[in-house]
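hiii so my PI (J.) wants the whole complex modelled not just the main chain, which honestly fair. so below is everything: three entries, each one labled with what it is. i double checked the lines twice but i was tired so who knows lol
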Amino acid sequence: METQVFEVRTGDRPAVVDITRQVEAFCRGKGDGLVNVFVPHATAGVALIETGAGSDLDLWKAIDGLLPRDDRWVHSHGSPGHGADHLLPAFIAPSVTIPVVAGKPALGTWQSVVLVDPNRDNPVRRVRLSFLG
Amino acid sequence: METQVFEVRTGDRPAVVDITRQVEAFCRGKGDGLVNVFVPHATAGVALIETGAGSDLDLWKAIDGLLPRDDRWVHSHGSPGHGADHLLPAFIAPSVTIPVVAGKPALGTWQSVVLVDPNRDNPVRRVRLSFLG
Amino acid sequence: METQVFEVRTGDRPAVVDITRQVEAFCRGKGDGLVNVFVPHATAGVALIETGAGSDLDLWKAIDGLLPRDDRWVHSHGSPGHGADHLLPAFIAPSVTIPVVAGKPALGTWQSVVLVDPNRDNPVRRVRLSFLG
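here's the output for the full assembly
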């Protein structure tokens, strides 16, 4: 297996960060296999969605409906509503596996790999890419 | 890695299509390994649920609660509420990995592999199966 | 591939059971690769969340909001609201893949692997671990 970690600056507000370019660069020259995109954090997830047409904004609306940022949560340190952030990875998992064909992730035309980070308190996140062929 | 793409007709209404048979056929004779089921589309997902007892219908009720088909979404081309379709893969990912033992996906008795496609505008979908042993 | 099945007692009420220790023990000595954690059941899922700080309790609150345990579901055998249990794996998938580095799952500091089992009717569950290096 080949594996590599890189950092992403997500800033101090909820962020959907497109990391497709990094995944593509990692796969280049690797032939056929599977690439796993993994976020080693308890308040972030990875998703495959279209970016640039509004869905990244819409995603927060949907997440706020599912996981309201209020005082209902037992887990309640940090920013108000931070307990919601801790539930995000149960619904948007921090791991996704993508087939790689001839050194390219076999994504559809409109699919991008995004890091979903609701967390206001951690401005830098790590992502681990792993390739098995 | 061995990989293969097939098409599924999902029609012009929300569809949960059982593709277990295709996954089983692909794994036959391949020994032990992992099979990845991947949908290269931005408005569809893959799930492992029981089919034939009503959960396929229930799933749309749950999805409509999470992602209402109305005009709240920024991403708003196509059919009314289509922005909701674009969020589906964030919650029902378009990728699932299943262990394969002796050429058979090691699914539980009541688990089926289903393509979840809310999209009214794309009647045919592709699915990529990839095996690594 | 190396693969192994173990049992978890989840009891007769909704349970979030930490299985990190079992995953770590399975990976020990295996070098670099990917470990897949798979639950061969139609009413359970696997998640990577922080445990011990309240999120395991909060998770049921979020699940009850998404999948209310009432008579709205078509799939309706067993305990009241059991149809909701059948939808859980669509949103919290029964499969997660984790990178393994030098025989250790490359989890973040606050990430635990948990079995999420809402089902009151099945007190014992199986989990399959599979390693590919």
